[in-house]
Amino acid sequence: MDTRTLDLDKIIAGCKRNDTQARKELYELYAPAMLGICVRYTKEKETARDILQDGFIKIYTKINTYSGTGSFEGWMKKVFVTTALEYLRDDKSLHYHTEISNYQESIEDFSVSVVNELSAKEIIDCIQELPDGFRTVFNLYAIEGYSHAEIASMLHIKEASSRSQYARARQLLQIRIKELFSKK
After folding, report:
1. CA distances from 58 to 63, 86, 98, 117 (A)
2. For the whole prediction, is pTM greater than 0.90?
3. Distance, CA of 34 to CA of 50 (rounded, Å)
4. Is 5 helix (H, G, I), strand (E, B) or coil?
């Protein structure tokens, strides 16, 4: 075991004992990465920060449920994704009402190499511009790696809806990226 693993084990044990210093260390260690997850699900940075705080409160209160098997960071990511989804559900942001018919133009000349010309920030901005429902399904499937069946269960939708929302999100992203690239 390396020193980092031992330090993390010590921090986790401290958090399980409600040690304030251990909680602070855990926050400082993981807040930047977890904020990245929160930002992917919301359009506003302040909302992402609120979700981050809610997520850490859940981590602190549920840390005793972490069994020590599997990746602690993976366990944390699931907590933050769930927290973001709960926020979106409570905020009624997961309504899939955006009409896709306006986006039926052909994108046959779109090349994946176009993405290589854009910065990570430009790509993230494109994802954040998606309607809430599309963005949520896109994040869960393409970035978090959940299956459409898992997404359907998490969002209380049909699996076919998840597939459809993902396809529509991809189409909108391709159009937006193509627009950005044509401006360069």
Report:
1. 8, 12, 32, 39
2. no
3. 12
4. helix
